[in-house]
Each structure stands twice: as C-alpha cells, then as structure tokens.
Amino acid sequence: MGLISGSKLDLARHGKTYEWKAWLIARLLRLLVGMLFYTWKIKWAGGEERYKAAFAARDPLILCTWHNRLIFWTSFFQKFGIQRGWKMGVMISRSRDGTIGIKMGEMAGARVVEGSSGTGGREAALTFFRMLSKDRHSLLMMIDGSRGPRYIAKEGPVQMAKLTGCPVVPLMSVGEREWLLTNAWDRFRIPKPFTTVTIHWGDPIVVDRRASEAEVEAKRVELEEALNRLRRELDAGRYPEEDEDTLS
Fold this sequence. Notes:
By secondary structure, this protein is an alpha/beta fold. The chain is 43% helix and 19% strand. It contains nine helices and nine strands. A seven-stranded mixed sheet has the order 1-9-6-2-5-3-4, with helices on both faces. Helix 5 links the parallel strand 3 and strand 4. Helix 2 crosses helix 5 (96-106) and helix 6 (121-133) packs parallel to helix 7 (156-164). The longest helix is centred in the C-terminal third of the chain and has 23 residues, at 213-235.
C-alpha cells in the first residue's frame, strides 16, 4: 500500500548498501502487489455503507485487522483511500523487513510511523496521537503484529481510542483462492490473481476517555472477538487449525 515515511531510516542501523537494496525490493514489490490488486474482485459481506459514510466524513478512525491480511488492506486503502484524498497512516516494525515496508510507503503516499510492540512503540504512540488528534489522519494497524501471537489483539489501538476519542473499526478480508505462508508466524495470506476477495467493515467500537483499566481490557477483548468472529464467518471453516490459537 501507499505508506509514506514519518521518520527517516537510520542508515547507521542498516547501511547504505541495504538502503539501496531495500529501495529496489520495495519498488518491485509495490509493482507486483499493485498488479495483483487490480485483478482482484472485491465482494462486500457487510459494512459497505459504513465504509462509504466514513470516506465521506473523513473523520479519523483507528482501522484494525490481523497481520496476515496486511497485503489486501494496505492495497485497498491506497486505491480507495489515499488516492481519493483520505489522509492515512500506518505503523511499520523497526526491522530489516520493516525498512522495505517504509520504502514501499515512501513511493506511494500515506504516513508511516516506525515502531512495534517491542521497539519504538511509545514514540510511535505519541506520533499517532498527533496524527489522529491534530492532523486528522486515519490509522491502519495490524494489531497482532509484529511478532504475534496470531489473532490476539494488542492493547495499543484501544488505548489510542481512549486518548483521542476516535472509534476503532475491525476490518476483515479473505480471498477465495489464496497463497498461505504456513511457515510464517501469522500464516500470511496473499490472494491469488483474479480471485474474489470478500471483505467486511465491522461496527465501530468507542472507548470512553474515562475508561478504567478493566474497561479498556474489556474493549480490547471486544475488538479481538469481533475480528475473530468476522474471520471465522468469511473463512467458512476452510482453516479450522487456525482456531486452535483462539479457542484453546
């Protein structure tokens, strides 16, 4: 997707040679993913009117999905968000692979914050707060990343919703035919060319600014359960082994 860098790459960390390689890989990946996206047929399972209303209002939202849906939703918001004037941002992990993600963003047009659950999270949270509250960007977050466990929501999006008053929106997608990277921690999914991708824009979740710690945790669980419910509905039983993580 289109993501634009909110912070410069640390050349001392990666080196100029890797910087150049990351740029080249990012350019190729963006081209390939862009070509893939234009072959996909999108089918709404629910929430199309909510998406249209959100796009019309352009109010800042915290848009949440699972890490293994990254390819589809970043592509979706590049075409149906950023290219149509919706200001958006995304968090990319501080890693060598994350560097490629940032480069892809620099080529396409949203705002990227470096960080993850393990490194840079506090700095990223402060930047996100300014983006939501002052710059009025919406934020796309893969909320079980960057290392999992798969399908377990982190608390960050709910805390950000409490601080800013912005709604949290669960997003789900599934390709009729997909490549499944079974060796990856998240079982990463890439819809195959010319397949139908079914999507759902979930009901917004609002977090009171005065919410207690227990209430914040309840909202985190609500978000996690909403995403997993939508995932099971759209998957229609094709990946029963994935529920071992969430039903055990």
